[in-house]
């Protein structure tokens, strides 16, 4: 869904050939995993079938490369809806960090140790990203700073959790005792 | 090379630093982190020769500065160090440019040359437009950038900065830190930056963590 909507959105500035679209897509959205041409053309076919895009002109007999695609008003509506629809907040809580820190708190392990090790790993990556950021513009700059901001958020949360340790641990212990009581 | 060797510092009944030893290798760039009250500013003040420890030594290029007079330490600071203080210490009656010119003029530079260099640096830090405003008439973030310029303008051997981007948003902070790293690289200066912000810390190669007035060596990561 998001690949096809993203491709569709790349038609918004103006009509484009499949080849140009693929290049633009790779440049802004898939720097590590470029799109296959086949996927670009099958997606464009589906978008056309669904009325979200149409073809401006077809030059005779030169294969798919000669087809110029254009976004329709309906297509713009779909992009609009997708861009502004907030992501389910749970999406950012993926990964094991949350679980590992909670287990550390629950089990009496020092979350500061979890933090220290995670910080070492994160900071190593963040240093590399900072170096990359200094030399980058456009799509790369956005991708690099997105990752930096998220790594930073992870670390901040572990730190906060450490600072809240007392309260959190009490709650966890209380919850565990509650369970024991319920079990009899 | 700047070194703290077994430094202990007390404020009355409060022990702020307990037997702290730290070596800043020439040209190294280090972030100093730790919870509020852990002693980061106290350590920076000792390294800068602003405070004299109760025990231990501060060695600047091998010379113990703890035995020097206030005057001698001020002179050394002017010649070899650049310091950004956590709560700022620009002269409020002077403009930002005049503040940045001060170290150069105290070291004997002429007014015109000092002003040229100050404006250049203020431009690099994104505050050229308020260079001739009085310190009291600019924003906290603008004053902070001028403080960074003043710490670097005389190309010191060591730059010590306490939360130098604490009043700046991420993008402006990034620009200031980039400028600090680039400039210190150009002049081969050693950098120590106190911060509570991991993004800030990620601009520097080394990390030193403080806890309760001591260096938390189990959690201090050094790369390279
Ligand atoms: N002038 C002072 N008089 C008395 N106690 C002080 C003084 N300055 C600092 N302290 C105490 O010394 C300890 C270390 O303070 P310091 O300012 O070095 O911490 P910090 O790590 O810089 O904290 P922050 O992140 O809040 O700036 C704290 O317990 C603080 O209360
Ligand atoms: Mg402080």
Question: In a few lines, what is going on in this structure?
Answer:
The complex is a heterodimer of chains A (184) and B (224). By secondary structure, chain A is mainly alpha-helical. Helices cover 68% and strands 7% of the residues of chain A.
For this structure, the CATH topology of chain B is: Rossmann fold
How many individual helices of chain B? 7
Biggest interface in this structure?
A: A-B, 20 and 18 residues
Looking at the structure, what is the overall shape of chain B?
Answer: globular
What's the story with the biggest beta sheet of chain B? Answer: 6 strands, mixed
Structural class of chain B: alpha/beta
Instruction: Report the order of strands and helices of chain A.
Output: HEHHEEHHHHH
Strand content of chain A: 5-15%
* Structural class label of chain A: mainly alpha
- How many domains of chain B? 1
Biggest β-sheet strands, sense, barrel of chain A: 3 strands, antiparallel
Count up the helices of chain A. 8
Output mean pLDDT of chain A: 80
Name the helix and strand elements of chain B from N-terminus to C-terminus, one letter apiece.
Answer: EEEHEEHEHHHEHEHEE
Shape of chain A: elongated
CATH superfamily of chain B: P-loop containing nucleotide triphosphate hydrolases
N- to C-terminal separation of chain A?
A: 49 Å
Record field, number of beta strands of chain A:
3
CATH architecture of chain B: 3-Layer(aba) Sandwich
Low-confidence stretches of chain B: none
Ligand species: adenosine-5'-triphosphate, magnesium ion
